[in-house]
């Protein structure tokens, strides 16, 4: 019985993680025109007591649209019923590089490096 409960909890957590990723794929960087997930800016996510924590980076320190992106992330994730609020943890290690981008993002941006 405990195994079933554990498996069910794992399935629910995986489903929520997938829905969080889907929500973040709707957040398009207004300067680059590609979503944050495909840009490789999202390092991880968690949910505790209704608070979603997003660990992420930016393409550059001092990015002028940091607050815009934060607002877009909050709006996207708060549409999920499990999420009451969003906390964003900006991290600079490891530093973002174009190699973190998905193949889709590289093609969309014409990056061949």
UniProtKB/TrEMBL annotation:
Q: Where is the MIP18 family-like domain?
A: 21-88
| Protein name, UniProt field | Metal-sulfur cluster biosynthetic protein
Say which domain of life the source belongs to: Bacteria
Task: Quote the InterPro entries the UniProt record gives.
Answer: Fe-S_Maturation_MIP18, FSCA_dom_sf, HMA_dom, MIP18-like
Q: Which GO terms describe its molecular function?
A: metal ion binding
Q: List the PANTHER family.
A: FE-S PROTEIN MATURATION AUXILIARY FACTOR YITW
């Amino acid at each position: 019985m405990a195994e079933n409960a554990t498996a069910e909890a794992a399935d629910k957590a995986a489903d929520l993680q997938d829905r969080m990723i889907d929500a973040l794929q709707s957040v398009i960087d207004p300067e680059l025109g590609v979503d944050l997930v495909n840009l490789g800016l999202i390092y991880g996510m968690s949910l505790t007591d209704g608070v979603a924590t997003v660990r992420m980076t930016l393409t550059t320190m001092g990015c002028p649209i940091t607050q815009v992106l934060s607002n877009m992330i909050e709006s996207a994730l708060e549409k999920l019923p499990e999420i009451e609020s969003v906390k964003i943890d900006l991290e600079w290690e490891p530093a973002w590089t174009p190699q973190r981008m998905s193949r889709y993002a590289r093609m969309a941006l014409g990056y061949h490096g």
